[in-house]
Records
---
Amino acid sequence: SAVISQKPSRDICQRGTSLTIQCQVDSQVTMMFWYRQQPGQSLTLIATANQGSEATYESGFVIDKFPISRPNLTFSTLTVSNMSPEDSSIYLCSAGRRDTGELFFGEGSRLTVL
Amino acid sequence: GENVEQHPSTLSVQEGDSAVIKCTYSDSASNYFPWYKQELGKRPQLIIDIRSNVGEKKDQRIAVTLNKTAKHFSLHITETQPEDSAVYFCAASTGTASKLTFGTGTRLQVTL
C-alpha cells in the first residue's frame, strides 16, 4: 500500500487568509485526489490533481478558491484561498495506482478558520 | 454523476453478533466498490473491495456482496468485536484508481 503524508496535520487560521496543504506519496501513483470531510460527514471530492496540468474540479468547487498543483507523480498541494469559517473542515489527500486499483488516504489536515 | 446511498446511518450490535450495511448506486457504469473504515480522528482505511465481475468476496470476518442488476452492494461483518466500532463508508467508481463517490457512512457500535 502507498504511504501518504500530509502537512500540516492541523492549523488554525484567520478569516481572509490562505493555507496550502502538501501531500507526498512514497511510491509511484497514477491518480491523486483531494477530498473534504466536514465534521461527522462523508467525504466529498474536491478535485482530481493532474500531473503537469490544471486539476479537474467537481461541481461546487472552483480553481480560484481551491487551487491545486501536481508538479510530479508523487506530490500535490491544495490551497484553500480567502478562507471563511465555512471552510473549517478536514482536507484529505488520496492516491492510487491503476494496476492495483486501490485508493489510499493521507491522515488529513484539520483546518479551523476563525 | 454517481449517487451512492447507504443504510443504516447508525447500527448497534452486541459483541459476537453480525452487522450488515447496505449501499445502492445509480451509475450502471460503476464497476469498483470499496469499503472504508474510519476510526475517530483517523484516516479512512480500505478494508475490502469488490469488482463488478465478482458477486461476493470474503476476508476473514468481513465479506462484501454485489448485485449488479439491482445496483446494490453490502458489507457483512460476522462475530463482531469492540474494535469493529467505527464509521464505515461504502464507495463506488467507474474504474481502478478512479475517483470515488462515497456513501453517507454508517456508525457501527459494538457493545459488550
---
Amino acid sequence: AQSVTQLDSQVPVFEEAPVELRCNYSSSVSVYLFWYVQYPNQGLQLLLKYLSGSTLVESINGFEAEFNKSQTSFHLRKPSVHISDTAEYFCAVIKAAGNKLTFGGGTRVLVKP
Amino acid sequence: DAGVTQSPTHLIKTRGQQVTLRCSPKSGHDTVSWYQQALGQGPQFIFQYYEEEERQRGNFPDRFSGHQFPNYSSELNVNALLLGDSALYLCASSSRTGVYNSPLHFGNGTRLTVT
C-alpha cells in the first residue's frame, strides 16, 4: 500500500515571497506523483505530475516540483507567490498501472498582502 | 465543453437514512471514480467504475455502493447514514488509459451533512 505525508498543514506566506510545500511518500512499488490544488468550494485541479524522465517538473503558473527517489519526496515550490495562490494543495501518488490515487492530508497556503 | 458535474451541491440527511449522489463525467471520459473528503483531510478513494462495473474499491464498508450507466454517468449510494459520513464527496472522471496518462478531472463535489 502507498501512503503520503504532507508535513505542513498550513503555510502562511507573504505575497511575492517563495513557498515550499513538503511531500513524502511511502511505497514498495514504483509510483507516479501528482500535486493537485483545491480552491475554496471547488474540486481538485491537477497542478503537475511526475511520470518519468526529468525529475524536475513545472506547471504553467510558476510552480515546480522535484522528484527525489532516494528521499522519497516530491516537494512543491514557487519562487514568488500571488494572492491568487491561496488554496489547499494536495500531494498524491498512484502505483504504476494502478487506478487509485492516494492523497496526503493537504497543505493550506494563505498568501498575505 | 462541460467538465464533471455533480448533483446536488449540498445535502442534509438524518442518521439512518439513505442518500444518492450523481455524477456526469467530462465529455470523452468513460471512467468514474468517487472520493470522500472529510473536513480538513485529503480525499480518500471509495471505488471506480468503468464498463458499468466496479473495478476497484477502497477501504469503505458495503453501505457504500455505486452504479454506472451506459452513458458513463454514475451514482454513489450510501445506506444507513452515520454522522461520520458527513463529508465532501468528489467524483472524478478519466479515460480508461489510466489516470497517469489521462489526468483525473474532478467535479466540485457534493457536501453531505448527516445530523
---
Amino acid sequence: DGGITQSPKYLFRKEGQNVTLSCEQNLNHDAMYWYRQDPGQGLRLIYYSQIVNDFQKGDIAEGYSVSREKKESFPLTVTSAQKNPTAFYLCASSIEGGPYNSPLHFGNGTRLTVT
Amino acid sequence: QKEVEQNSGPLSVPEGAIASLNCTYSDRGSQSFFWYRQYSGKSPELIMSIYSNGDKEDGRFTAQLNKASQYVSLLIRDSQPSDSATYLCAVNRDDKIIFGKGTRLHILP
C-alpha cells in the first residue's frame, strides 16, 4: 500500500544534540512538507519542497534544515539552534503544489522530546 | 488578523444533531480549502477539499465555501460519538498550505 512513513515514532534527545527525522513516501508525489504541532495548537509549516533538489522555508524554519535528494525522501534535521524543539513533527506530501493545491497526505508523525 | 481563524471550542453537540464548524481566512487569493480531522495523538486525515464557491457534499459531511466573505464551513449531519475530534481548517497561501488552530468537537451520547 502507498503511504508516508515517518520514523521513529518517538525520539528522545539531550539538549545541544542535532537529530534527524526520517520521512519516506511511495505515493510518487512531487511535493513534500514538514509541519510542527505543539499541544493545543494547529500545524505550523517548517519547510516544503516542490521538486527534487529544491526546497523553501516555511513560517518557522529557524533551527531546522532539510534536504531533498530523492523524490521519495525529505528528512528534517532539528539542530541545536532550535530553541524549543520538543513537539509533534508531521511530514506530508501532495501530488503537486501551486495555487490549486492537491490535498496533503500525512505520515503518522514523530514525537520528539528534548531534555 | 490571523491567516486562518477557527473557534477553538470545545463545541458540544448531541448525538444525532448537526455539528457546524466555521473558519475564516485572510488571503483573498486563496484557491484551495481543506478540512482535516485529527484524533488526539494522531496525524490529521482529510475529510473534504473544496475549490469553488458553494456546497460540496460527501456522505454526512458538507463543506461550504464563500470566497467573497472569506469563509469556509463544515457541517456534520447525524453526529456520532466517533466524530469527537479536533477539526482543522487549511487554506493555501501561494504554494503553501496553512492551518488554523482547530476546533475541538465533542459529541454528547
---
Amino acid sequence: AQSVSQHNHHVILSEAASLELGCNYSYGGTVNLFWYVQYPGQHLQLLLKYFSGDPLVKGIKGFEAEFIKSKFSFNLRKPSVQWSDTAEYFCAVSAYSGAGSYQLTFGKGTKLSVIP
Amino acid sequence: ETGVTQTPRHLVMGMTNKKSLKCEQHLGHNAMYWYKQSAKKPLELMFVYSLEERVENNSVPSRFSPECPNSSHLFLHLHTLQPEDSALYLCASSRDRGNNQPQHFGDGTRLSIL
C-alpha cells in the first residue's frame, strides 16, 4: 500500500518569503500526484496535479511543484507567499490498489501561517 | 462553490443517537467517497461508491453505514458512535475512479460525539 509523508506539520513565514513544502511517497509503480489546499473554514480544493510529461507543474495562485521520480518526491513551491496563502496543504498520491481500483492517499497536511 | 454539498455543517449527538450525514454532488460524477479528517492524521478513506455500487470499504466499523441511492447522493448513517468518532467527515466526488481523476470535496460535516 502506498503512503505519503509531509515533513513539516506547521510552517510559519513572513510575507514575501519563499515557500517549499516537502512531500515524499512510497510506491514502486506509476503514480499521479496532487496538492490540495484547505483555506480556513473552506473545503479542500485542488491546487495542482501531475499525471505525466513535464515534471514541473504549475497550479493556481502562483504555486508550482516538481516531481522527482528518483527521490519519490513532489515538493510544493511558491517564490513569494502572501497572507492569503495561510491554509493547510495536503499532498496526495493516486496509485493502483488492486482489483482494478485506484486509491488516493493523503499526507497528514502542513499548516502554513503567513505573517503580514 | 464546490459542486459538492454536505449537510448538516455541524452535528452534535449522543452515543445512543441515530443520525445521517448527507452529500449531494451537482457535477455529473460517477464516483463518490466518504473520508474522515481527524486532527494531525491523514485523511482516512472510509467508503467508495462507483455508479452507486460500493467498491471499497476500508475496515470501517459497522456503526457507520453508507448508502448511495443514486449517482448524485450519498449518505452516511450513524448509530451508537464513540467519542473517538468526533471528526470532520468529508464527502468527495470524481468523474470516475480513474487514476488521474481529481476529487472535488464538500465543506464537510463537523461531528461531535458527547
